[in-house]
Every structure is written in structure tokens, then in C-alpha cells.
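## Example record

The block below lists the input lines for one assembly entry, exactly as stored, with component labels intact.
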Amino acid sequence: MHHRFTVGNVEIIALSDAVQAYPGSAIYPQAGDALDAYRHYQQDDGGIALNFGCFLLRDPERTILVDTGLGPTENGKLMDELSGAGASPDDVDAVIFTHLHPDHTGWNIDPDTGKPRFSRARYLVPGADWGHYSQQQPQPDSFQRDVQPLMAAGVMDLFDGEHSLSSSSVAVPTPGHTPGHTSIMITSNGERGCILGDVVLTPVDAEELAWANSFDWDHEMARATRLRLVDRLINEEIVVGASHLPAPGIGRFVRLEGRTRWQGFNPSEDAS
Ligand SMILES: [Zn+2]
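Predicted C-alpha cells for the full assembly:
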């Protein structure tokens, strides 16, 4: 079920492609018994449920899709979610990837035609992630299946550093989860938002910003990015959309009694 929020003139539609649980002990292998303090975020079997969220940003100029989920091979629901929100793949002017992990690129290509599914869109790819995965031997299967064909079709644009997406949105480097990991900062009518990507994966990360999680590429870099960015998001009271925090994945980071915490908005709540 999709959910709408607004930041100034920008409508943010939160779309959930899937929910899957991973063992907490596998996400945080170094935490040991300290993970027991977070039983309330775990299922009875120790699993932590991850939402696989994508975000559609609509401003008066452009419609931008951030990430494309796990995709049809994992029975993703993104296409149903889009149509439920009254949007079609052909409405999308640009697809931007926070990074090139397989759970963020799954719906790029229509397997029946081999063509890009978002037919009008440019596909914006962090250059450092393109470089990283295209040099791997062998290249990841998902990279060959979901990303390489975009280059071949001539619809892909690489970007590095800060990259303007519209008059209200800019992509900014937030490296560590992957080399080119990117977040999107939104400013409109004095209100601010951030599509975070995977800088914070679970509510546990939000409270234990210094913990390493097994999905991050460079633990030190990921930790530094997480500490710096979450501090800013709290201090500036920025509305956040996060890929894997519980659906709809929109809320704020707050500081309570000296600890950081994720506060998700109720689905009916408006971000403004
Ligand atoms: Zn992810």
C-alpha cells in the first residue's frame, strides 16, 4: 500500500516492493549479546523485517523514481504499488539509484522485451558504483541483468559528486554502504526532506549509529557517513524516507535522553 507525504511542493509517494526478514545476528555479527536489547525490533525467530521501499518524487517539473526494488524475480509489488498510486512507468522522467545493490535495481528491465521498463526515463547512476561493479570479475548477476542493459540502450547517465535533479532536489554523496552511495536532499517552500537510501538499514542502526552491519562495503566510511548525516537530519529536523525502515519508511530521526531513535510517521500523517 502506497502512502503520500509532502515536503513543500514536492509530493513523496512511498512504495513498498516487498518485506523480507533477515536474522539480526547475520546483519550485526559483531553485536553479540548487545543485540538482545533490541528484541522488540526482532521477530520470535530473531529476524528483523526489512521493507524494500522505493520513493516517487513529484514536483511541478518532474517525476523522479528513487530506486526500483527487488523486482519480478522476488515477486515484488512495485508495479502494483505504482498503479495503485495513480502513476504509470511512462510518467517517470528520471530513475535515480541510491546505489547499485540488486534490491534497488530489480524493475529496471522488462524481461519480456529486454527494454528499459520506464520507457521515457533517463537512468541516473552513481559513477563510483558503476566503476566498482563493472570492474568486478565476475560482475554480479544483477548488475549484468539490470544495469548493463541501460548503458547498452543509451538511457543511462553517470554522475559524480553533487548532482541537481530538479529545482527542489539534489543528489549528494553518502558513501560507505557502497562506494557511490547517494542520498537525495529536497528543499521546497522552506521545508526539507531527504531520501536516505541505505545509510540506516534498521531501527537498530538508528540507535546504534556506530555499529557495523554486514551489508556495508566499508564499515569505517559507512559509520562516519551515518554519524554525520543522522546528526544533521536531527538538528535540521529534516523529513526522511529510508529504503529499509518499516513501511512506509517516512519519518524523522530524533534524540531522546541522549539517544538517537527513528520515529516513523503514521501512514495517515502528512509530513508537512
Ligand atoms: Zn538496500
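Residues 101, 103-104, 198, 243-244 surround zinc ion (CB under 6 Å). The chain has one domain: 3-193.
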